[in-house]
Amino acid sequence: MMRWSSLRPYVMVAPALTVFSIFFIYPIFYMIYLSFHSWDFISPDKNFIGLGNFEELFDSREFMQVLSNSFQYMLLTVSLTTILSLLLALWLNRKGMIYGFVQGAIFSPHIISLVSVSLVWMWLMDPRFGLLNWIFDTVGLPRSEWLTNPKSALFSLVVVAVWKGLGFNTLVFIAGLQSIPPYLYEAAALDDSPRLTTLYRITLPALSPTLFFLTIINMIGSFQVFETIAIMTQGGPVNSTNTLVFYIYQYGFKFFKIGYASAAGVVLLVAVGVLTLLYFKLLSRKVHYR
Predict the structure, then answer these.
(1) pLDDT tens-digit map of 45-79
(2) Which of 103, 251, 253, 287 is most buried, by the most CB atoms less than 10 A from its CB?
(3) Which spans are transmembrane here (predicted)?
(4) Whole-angstrom distance, CA of residue 262 vs CA of residue 65
């Protein structure tokens, strides 16, 4: 008979695996199953239509714009958040009361509800009474329509996402900077290494695991954006801020085209999976673990 000591690990992880399978694995496979069917969420019958939902998706100009919006939002959010938080971390990685205060101040948006953040930024970006346009008037800059102009609406949502995530990314970068052995910088100082050379040759390679981690989670998180769009723009104006998750919500729970929405969900799953695999394949070798 098998001993209890050999069964114990499986028994210990069984509850977590059960919950994970019920709430993560099963929904994914059920979504894939629904993507091959036509279903209105009400009738008990699901009509098998094969690849019909996918053909309809990729024949839709609306969906192609949504796909383009999603990739633009991801690229802008990830790049701006990473660059700005790295610069802030390099500045704040020192002792002093003022630096500790600034760290706490920029981290505070991370713990605020995204719904509250969206409502505050809606007021800030109000074209008539918003604080941002009042500041623009004060300094003599032209007013912006922010969320009501198709050319600026998506970037306005990017600004909100960057502001929300900046503090978390900065503190993770600071933790990474503080884990770099001081003797590396001492050796660079003895060699009279310029600051930019030290940054490029020591700091960035030593921070590569942190950069790798933050880029992955920011990329996945940017594809999952929903609350800010649902509250601030509803996908408008003229579909300019509609992204995949909100598009899935619209067709699934407003128009009750469950099969079509599931097909869009499969596209989202594949897009995130492929980008993550490519990122691991192309950049994992450039990560330096000490």
Answers:
(1) 889 999 999 999 999 999 999 999 999 999 999 99
(2) 251
(3) 12-33, 71-92, 104-124, 153-177, 198-220, 258-280
(4) 18
